[in-house]
């Protein structure tokens, strides 16, 4: 595996800015998309003697590695070979590394060959929810709703751009000067967005939205105080009774997480089709068909949009259709599907509150170019949508379900909503987190009779106007009780 191989190695990235390159994955593309002399934001100080030693050993190790053979070897055997070779190289340098530094160097080599370089250490941390890369020398992470700068860095723009291209290659997409933006996903479902020069002025930038290895369930949401048992019971009843639900919220507010939780309440035996731009839903059920859009190729052909997939899904005998996010003219097709026998469908939309979500959907339907009168659009929305759930990321980073509203129809030309449950923020505590309380609004939903007719019992008392107590951390379902009681 080691030694000078007759095979030609694929350049990965310069090391330490000295222009030398070493072999790496063929999945990575060319780094030519980065213009020479492009600004990179933060310029780090020169490496210390210890860092320079590790860079040199790192370079020589990969320089002498037959990567084609390395990728065919079991990971454990490769680690032993790399460890033996590192010892040999350190002996040649006559500067020994400590055991922790040696293990770290070995891990970095493995990450460089098989993973995403310096990002792998961050991806191994289950508490990291977002990774934000502002150029090669500035990486931030989010933990528990707070952003912090990390010590991890890429060597230069070329190194970062090749990691981005490696991500794109894994899902058969590309990013280069002709297509300098990328929406992709990692193997664990984490969502990736990247943009490179010439659009990114200070060097390549990337954001990774992570999802936990163990998906959130309703007990965890209750335990962290994201909603109350009464709100949970009502949403579960709406899902089981096949009401059409729109989940609104801002970026990073938890829309996808709540949509995943709602999928668990879909009765077994129903066929669900999901449609997304970049697959990130982790539906907690087996009978699912997952569809993903496709961008145009280098010749601007072959694009498959959400509208195309939505029209095709209607021929796939779905019981429910779940659209990851409504962003454009597909809003019209979603409303038509909800109005033509696909009850129980769900989607998400970016908005500041349920009423803004209604206006956004109205505008997106207009993007279909059919020149529908505004009143006709609102009538179709009022007929198609039953429940709107709003989630928000509050001051301090905590996420909560802040509003559950029922669509009651039209009054004249006006689209009518009535709040059933809401969260009211009252202050901010000494830790910088929002403080407030959940409350029932004292409105009996018009859907309650239909819920009862479906054999689901919800007491009218749960809608009485009052302050609602969230479940304490750790209480989970024990305090929530059975979410929905079936009538006998």
Structural account:
The protein is an alpha+beta fold. It folds into two domains: 11-209, Beta-Lactamase; 218-486, 3-Layer(aba) Sandwich (Rossmann fold). Helix content is 32%, strand content 23%. The chain has helices at residues 49-63, 67-72, 75-93, 99-114, 119-123, 157-170, 218-223, 229-240, 255-263, 306-313, 330-338, 354-366, 374-384, 448-453, 476-480, and strands at 11-14, 21-23, 128-134, 139-143, 146-149, 181-185, 191-195, 205-209, 245-249, 272-276, 288-292, 320-323, 346-350, 387-393, 399-411, 414-428, 434-440, 456-457, 466-468, 485-486. Strands 11-10-12-13-9-14-15-16-17-19 form a ten-stranded mixed sheet, sandwiched between helices. The protein has a six-stranded antiparallel sheet with strand order 5-4-3-8-7-6. A two-stranded antiparallel sheet has the order 1-2. The radius of gyration is 26 Å and the shape is elongated. The termini are far apart. Residues 4-43 and 473-488 have low confidence and may be disordered.
């Amino acid at each position: 595996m080691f030694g000078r191989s007759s095979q030609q190695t694929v350049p990965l990235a310069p090391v330490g800015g000295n222009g030398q390159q070493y072999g790496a994955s063929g999945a990575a593309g060319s780094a030519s998309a980065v213009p020479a002399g492009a600004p990179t934001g933060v310029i780090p100080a020169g490496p210390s003697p210890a860092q320079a030693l590790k860079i040199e050993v790192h370079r020589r190790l990969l320089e002498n590695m037959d990567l084609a053979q390395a990728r065919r070897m079991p990971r454990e055997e490769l680690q032993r070979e790399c460890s033996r070779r590192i010892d040999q190289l350190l002996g040649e340098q006559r500067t020994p590394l400590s055991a922790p530094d040696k293990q770290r160097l070995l891990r970095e080599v493995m990450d460089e060959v098989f993973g995403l370089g310096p990002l792998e250490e961050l991806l191994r941390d289950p508490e990291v929810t977002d990774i934000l890369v502002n150029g090669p020398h500035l990486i931030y992470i989010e933990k528990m709703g707070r952003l912090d700068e990390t010590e991890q860095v890429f060597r230069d723009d070329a190194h970062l751009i090749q990691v981005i291209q490696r991500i794109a290659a894994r899902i058969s997409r590309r990013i280069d000067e002709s297509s300098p933006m990328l929406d992709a996903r990692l193997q664990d479902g984490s969502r990736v967005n990247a943009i490179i020069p010439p659009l990114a002025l200070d060097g390549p930038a990337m954001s990774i939205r992570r999802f936990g290895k163990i998906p959130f369930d309703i007990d965890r949401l209750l335990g962290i105080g994201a909603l109350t048992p009464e709100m949970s019971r009502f949403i579960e009843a709406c899902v089981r009774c096949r009401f059409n639900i729109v989940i609104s919220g801002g970026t990073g507010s938890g829309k996808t997480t709540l949509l995943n939780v709602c999928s668990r309440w879909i009765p077994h035996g129903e066929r669900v089709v999901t449609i997304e731009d970049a697959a990130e839903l982790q539906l907690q059920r087996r009978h699912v068909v997952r569809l993903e859009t496709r961008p145009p190729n280098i010749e601007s052909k072959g694009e498959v949009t959400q509208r195309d997939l939505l029209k095709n899904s209607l021929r796939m005998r779905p019981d429910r259709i779940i659209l990851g996010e409504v962003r454009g003219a597909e809003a019209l097709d979603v409303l038509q599907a909800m109005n033509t026998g696909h009850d129980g469908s769900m989607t998400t939309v970016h908005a500041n509150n349920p009423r803004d979500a209604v206006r956004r959907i109205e505008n997106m339907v207009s993007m279909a170019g059919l020149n529908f009168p505004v009143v006709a659009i609102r009538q179709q929305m009022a007929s198609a949508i039953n429940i709107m759930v709003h989630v928000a990321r509050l001051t301090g980073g905590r996420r909560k379900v802040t509003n559950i509203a029922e669509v009651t129809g039209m009054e004249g030309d006006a689209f009518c909503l009535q709040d059933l449950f809401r969260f009211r923020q009252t202050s901010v505590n000494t830790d910088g987190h929002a403080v407030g309380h959940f409350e029932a609004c004292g409105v009996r939903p018009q859907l309650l009779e239909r819920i009862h007719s479906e054999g689901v019992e919800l007491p009218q008392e749960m809608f009485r106007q009052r302050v609602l107590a969230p479940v304490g951390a750790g209480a989970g379902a024990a305090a929530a009780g059975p979410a929905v009681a079936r009538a006998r």
